[in-house]
Amino acid sequence: MNKLLDPPLRYFSIYLGAVSAMEIAHLTVWSLLFCPMLAGMAGLARKYSRQRSWGLLAAICVSLAVGMNVSYQAMAGAIPAVRSVRFDAQLLALDRLLIGETPSVWLERWISPPLTELMSACYLLLMPLLLVSLLRYFFRRRELLGEFYTGLFAVYGLGFLGYLLVPAAGPWLAYPELFNVKLSGGVITAFNQAMVEQGSNKVDVWPSLHVAVTLYILGFAARHHRLEFWILLLPILGLWIATFYLRYHYFVDVLSGLALAGFGLYEARRHAAHPAINPSKKDTHANPV
């Protein structure tokens, strides 16, 4: 088991272990998906513990990227099968305890079609930013591959565990009665709304991975790509505001996402500082793009 929990598989494997155990306990068909995923990653981890080569690290990173996307889509059915309760009431109550009201309500006074269009554009930034980052470190900056993926999948593993343990839908679905002004905009707003309505698994609120992943990428850029940090800073700040403005997240979701990103950056640094878990420079350079 300790080999399974070696980076970069540690936290995503914890999530897969938890969801597999819950699906088995409830005798759901979803165990037929998650148990083989867990077993496959365990096999890769054992091989990587014996031979830390570029090829095995690449296989692990591909498996994590595929597993992330498959797991996210499967949550729409898998989590309701084992967790019928929703925690929107508790998250809203925490917001009101901490700051008086959930920020989406405060921001309603500023709603306008142009601002909604801008906020929708900011919110959509996550997907291209994530895709470019995943491909960049796999194909062009291989010396950073293990470091980037270790921290990123610490974020995703613990974030998905949060979805499993504290499923919630967000203010836009759970509390439409809180809002008096309809969000309207242009083409970008319509596209974003369609993406969220069709693509969301309806349990993906706590913690906010939109915030956690973008802060992780921003923090990684601050360490390795300083110019990109400054280029991305304002759009990513806009994305964080958009999570409230578009009514997708509670304040505590965003706070948790910020903390989760900090932990991911810590894990990335630990990986970079531990030569035993990195392929040698010779091995990496022996596989040019």
**Rg from Cα:** 20 Å
Shape: globular
Topology order in helix (H) and strand (E) letters:
HHHHHHHHHHHHHH
Number of helices: 14
Oligomerization state: single chain
The total count of strands amounts to: 0
Distance between the termini: 34 Å
Structural class, please?
A: mainly alpha
Low-confidence stretches: 275-289
User: What fraction of the residues are assigned to beta strands by DSSP?
Assistant: under 5%
| Major sheet characteristics | none
Describe the structure.
By secondary structure, the chain is an all-alpha fold. Helices cover 72% and strands 0% of the residues. The two termini are 34 Å apart. The C terminus is likely disordered.
Short description:
By secondary structure, the protein is an all-alpha fold.
